[in-house]
Design goal:
The chain is mainly α. Helices cover 67% and strands 0% of the residues. It has a domain at 75-87 and 116-237.
Length: 243
């Protein structure tokens, strides 16, 4: 038999999905779950705690797949697939997805933070392969913010975002700006740029337990690499960037 906590979470998600204003009454949640209010309060503290748990419960099902996914030989293709699965989850679980981004929470739900970590790890692989041309943290924020924007458009205003190719068009446009030409498996490989080489070295250094450099030397090297990764090859070759 399903435990009371899971029944409460499932009931809350069911009611949220059917709610026109994304609001629910905890008494209705308890009624559907077949438990009393004291059980809900013991499990989640209050309504806000219940809603946070709904987000984590919903995303745990999604993240379980990502946690155990085996990387392919092409990290960029993995990132493209990750984008697609993100959009698919949002459309399939609109109530949970909207809650993840709710401004009423006093802290970011755990699931949102884990999604960022998983995305960053995939970008670190791309950087180590010499494919990324911007800073890893910046790339993480760009991809996630774009994916969230597309997802919310499809979830909140589906009548205004009806083009079935929208997600893929935005996805490919974002990724083309972040990786060297030819990073996609169906394109010819292009030579690395200064920015991608700097990102690659930074990622490889991050994988090392120790380096034959002092702490100040390591800090200076990382600063130089971030500068190189953030400047365009044209600017660097023109001599305008000074270390």
């Amino acid at each position: 038999m399903t435990d009371a906590r899971t029944r409460l979470l499932d009931a809350a998600e069911q009611l949220l999905t059917a709610s026109p204003d994304s609001d629910i009454a905890i008494r209705d949640v308890c009624r559907i779950a077949g438990v009393g209010l004291p059980v809900l309060y013991r499990q989640f503290g209050d309504k806000a705690g219940l809603l946070k748990a709904v987000v984590d419960h919903g995303f745990d099902r999604y993240l379980e797949v990502k946690r155990h996914a085996k990387p392919s030989a092409n990290p960029v293709e993995d990132l493209l697939a990750g984008w697609d699965s993100h959009i698919e989850f949002a459309v399939s679980h609109p109530a949970v997805y909207r809650l993840m981004l709710s401004p009423t929470f006093d802290q970011v739900p755990r699931a949102a933070s884990e999604l960022m970590r998983i995305l960053r790890a995939a970008l670190e692989r791309a950087a180590a392969a010499g494919l990324l041309v911007v800073d890893i943290d910046l790339a993480t924020q760009q991809i996630m913010s774009a994916a969230i924007g597309v997802s919310l458009g499809l979830v909140v205003q589906p009548e205004n975002f009806r083009d079935p190719t929208l997600s893929r068009q935005v996805r490919d446009a974002i990724h083309r700006d972040l990786f060297i030409p030819g990073a996609f498996s169906h394109s010819p490989r292009a030579p690395a740029t200064i920015a991608s080489a700097a990102n690659q070295l930074g990622a490889l250094i991050g994988e090392q337990a120790s380096l034959p450099l002092t702490d100040p030397e390591q800090a200076l090297l990382r600063q130089w690499l971030r500068t190189l990764a953030g400047d365009s090859p044209t600017k660097l070759m023109s001599g305008d960037a000074h270390l």
